[in-house]
Design brief:
This protein is α/β, with parallel strands linked by helices. It has helices at 54-66, 104-112, 121-132, 177-181, 183-188, 193-211, 248-257; strands spanning 16-22, 26-33, 38-39, 44-47, 76-80, 84-85, 88-89, 116-120, 141-147, 151-157, 160-162, 171-172, 175-176, 215-219, 239-241, 262-263.
Length: 264
Amino acid sequence: MNSHKSPRTNTPDHPLAFGIDIGGSGIKGAPVDLATGEFAQERHRIATPQPSTPRAVAEVVHELVDAYDLPTEVPIGVAFPAPIHHGVIRFIANLDQSWTGVDLPALLAQETGRRVVGINDADAAGVGEVRYGAARDAQGVVLVATLGTGIGSALLVDGTIVPNTELGHLEIDGFDAETRAADSARSREDLSWEEWAGRLQRYFGVVEDLLSPDLIVIGGGVSKHHEKFLPLLHLRAPVVPATLRNAAGIVGAAAHAAGGSQLA
């Protein structure tokens, strides 16, 4: 593993937090300059261990953090692929089932010797976009939706995250919404952009009727093709593409650890 131990300072003008994004295939981390939302040093990625037990993942997190020369007071924010209820993993899909019932911040704080804050990965992306990205300075209700294998969602009200929303699993027209409207459905069914946009219109129309967001931000890898489908949506709220892309989880987790967002 390459070392990143060039010294960094943690100053009032450029405070640091360390963001980690845990996924089923890789664990990524980088120190984040909270004044700008940019990586303070190059991001590093380590393959997710198999089996991905809490102990094995905690050791990788420790390795990531230890690769950087960070002051001891720098907090760690961890974006995790499951709902987190007051720090505890209630159920898990993409990692080892032994994560169920684990207190994520307590485990990683013990492993790293630092203060650790956990947040759902979709929520972390939402925090990143509201703090530094497409929804920066937005007021009111902001919905950040990631369109990929499923539909991830983050809901923020005046910068406060409403945690663990699973709006991709709304039942619409008798279907779990993400099975019809996720980007994976577009690929699987070889839908044209226009056909897929019709499904997105139906999905976001229902969500808009429920939540009346002031702004909708669309993320996920498909957002780089936003000009092909966002203009086809006709909603009351403005709809814009996410800007942080793959950095959103790390940046949002770091901001959350530093108190850049609050939990409702």
